[in-house]
Design goal:
By secondary structure, this protein is of the alpha+beta class. Helix content is about 40%, strand content about 15%. Strand 3 and strand 4 form a beta hairpin.
Length: about 230
């Protein structure tokens, strides 16, 4: 059961950022396991279990990141990540291009939400086509975002603005990738089991957006005319 992270979690991550090398990590491996790895696994399992109860038919799985960087990407001489995360997603060969629920902790902040690591250009073209075909329906989908203050729309924008069908859809229409994000400074909430409730409630609020995004790949290619 997840009972919260601790100040030791934050201390470890700051220590790793300042001493990102194997000798320091090996000396502090027990601290890593007890203060970061084990609580993260417990949080992921508990949140996933709660989400799965209501969405059994979705085929979700959960994953917890490793602290070790991919050896092929260690170009800065720093072999460890200074952050850690879990995700809830459908298994996919190309997970970077599919929408996932996620939670991440770093030395300064914790974040969670829904989105793509890097959406494909074709996926975003299909998003724009859906908006073009039914702008009012899309405005109805995104209306709840305007009535809450937990999540913001984030993601890289196109450098050259595209003409959206309405002002309300413009922000979505001009994204190269989509992230619905909440970011929070590390504080006492991170050290409490109440974090589970916040994440579960947030993911359930985001589920209609997941349903919308996860079906985009099945749409026809809008660049091909009949």
């Amino acid at each position: 059961m997840f009972t919260g992270f601790s100040q030791s979690t934050i201390d470890f991550m700051w220590g790793l950022r300042l001493n990102n090398n194997k000798p320091w990590f090996e000396d502090n491996k027990t601290l890593f396991q007890e203060s970061l790895q084990n609580p993260m696994k417990a949080l992921a399992l508990e949140v996933f279990g709660r989400v799965e109860e209501d969405y059994k038919d979705y085929g979700f799985k959960h994953k917890v990141s490793r602290i070790y960087k991919d050896a092929r990407r260690v170009r800065d001489g720093e072999p460890y990540r200074c952050n850690m995360w879990f995700s809830i997603e459908k298994p996919s060969e190309d997970w970077t291009a599919t929408p996932v629920f996620w939670f991440e902790i770093s030395p300064e902040t914790w974040r969670y939400g829904l989105g793509y690591y890097q959406a494909k250009a074709l996926t975003m073209a299909k998003l724009r086509a859906r908006i073009d075909n039914a702008p009012k329906k899309f405005e109805k989908l995104i209306a709840p975002l305007e009535r809450q203050n937990e999540f913001i729309l984030d993601g890289e924008k196109y450098k050259r603005e595209k003409a959206a069908p309405s002002q309300k859809t413009a922000a979505w229409y001009n994204k190269k990738s989509i992230v619905l994000l909440h970011e929070h400074q590390n504080d006492e909430e991170l050290f409490s089991s109440k974090l589970v409730d916040r994440l579960v409630e947030g993911y359930k609020f985001l589920m209609p957006f997941y349903d919308f995004l996860s079906t985009l790949d099945s749409d026809p290619d809008p660049r091909i005319s009949d």
